[in-house]
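Encode chain A's predicted structure.
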Amino acid sequence: MFFYVLLTSHPYLCPKQKVGLRKSQGMVMTALAKAQPGAPLSDAPDVGKHYLETLGLIERLHRQLLDVIKDELDRRDEREINSVQALLLFNVGDQELTAGELRTRGHYLGSNVSYNLKKLVDAGYIHHERSAVDRRSVLVRLTKKGEVVRAMLVELFGRHLLSLQAVGNVGASDLEGTNTALRRLERFWIDQVRFRL
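Encoded structure for chain A:
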């Protein structure tokens, strides 16, 4: 219904096309019926409301993940870095990456990556050096100290897996469906920016 209202309010659809849309849904509409403006997103049935809920959940879940990581850092008495920096170390992993690659791998704002990388380099968690191929690029990799924090998060997420289904009631099929939907949403948002839709 939501998409029908959007389509029928489109100025380039002739009345016959509007009738065809309605008939395809098993409903009848006369060609002289006035097109109604699209409903506000907050009032839209099903897809609109679910979309807004998804946006809120994505934002809240990321903050909650950072809280879970902070709690683990506190339990281990690791006070030198924060949860964002620990997650950044986790995303570097055992690879050598540029700051740009790290930005696309994780969900960081550009300035946050530069700021946090500098802090991690100064604290001895990350080693950085200029690329031999492209002198403008700086390659980063974990030091032994950084690998300890990464191992801590690997262990944390491993513990989560042991109780995810039993306690959280989240199974493999749930995660697979969620990941599929989130990848499609990511692709949709990328296209919104790339093609200015």
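The chain has a mean pLDDT of 81.
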